[in-house]
Amino acid sequence: MRIVKETLGGEKTQLGAGDLELIHRLARSPLGEEELYTFSVRLCDNEIDRDWERFTDQTLEELAGLFVGKSGIFDHQWSARGQAARIYKTEVVREPDRLTRTGEPYCWLKGYAYMVRTEGNRDLIREIEGGIKREVSVGCAVDRAVCSVCGADRNQTDCGHRKGQEYDGRLCYATLEGASDAYEFSFVAVPAQPMAGVVKGAGDWRAVAARDPGARKELARLEEEARLGRQYAETLRSEVVRLALLADRELDGSVVESVAKKLEPAELQALAQSYARQAGERFPVKVQLTYRAEKRAEEADQAFLV
After folding, report:
1. E strand intervals along the chain
2. Which end of the chain has fewer CB within 10 Å, C or N?
3. pTM exceeding the 0.70 threshold for the entire prediction
4. CB 44 within 8 A of CB 63
5. Which one-letter DSSP state was computed for residue 162?
6. Run of H or E residues at 228
7. How far apart are CA 203 and CA 209, in angstroms?
């Protein structure tokens, strides 16, 4: 089960004892302190989030080791060009005086990242220090999502309990257990839910929908509407090509068709109306029956000619 959790990060830190050695384990050549910029990020915690899911303390400990060496990128675009930083150490921060909704002491996973100071990332460093780049989103994977009511693995079966509802006074949520991988952390411009530890999304949304009858029905409806929308768009593109050739015989049909494929439905509708007006001016509609009083009177008189 792949999950994405958005949280807060981007706090400047100072190199501590042994940090330079940890960074050198990841770097190909030794780097001086003056060449490095380090900062920390809040990766994830053990609180119930708005998806009604939570990590266990054990899962956070497992993720701590998996995140070491992972890259910091932008908007989850997995490209080498977007690599901006790398996590060189992590720690699980415990706040015993603060309790979660489950009544357990609050804890969260903190990651320490470094960047090599370059001309290209000078603005990024300034944005981190200025508080502009604060939100980060992390991607990781867990083996199980355990129902808090019945203990069933929600990845394997639909136990019937709905997250966020209460059953005999027990709140239903999923406990994420068995960390199996950590992918990266990303700087994001506008997170969907910017508060720490509140946003995650299942990687395979079709699999999530398959476990809920209502979601399956809604998904089927949306897919049918999408199919009809695609069909309408193709019909509209063909109509645009037809009207364009009627309006101007010198147009290249293949060129018009290529252009039409790149347009959105609203743009196609406007273009179809324009070409229809031009085609109408070129080929005005004529009625089959005409009435001319002069000719009718002449024909009527001919009946009396001898």
Report:
1. 2-12, 36-45, 53-55, 71-74, 85-99, 105-116, 135-147, 166-167, 170-171, 174-187
2. C
3. no
4. yes
5. P
6. helix 213-247
7. 12
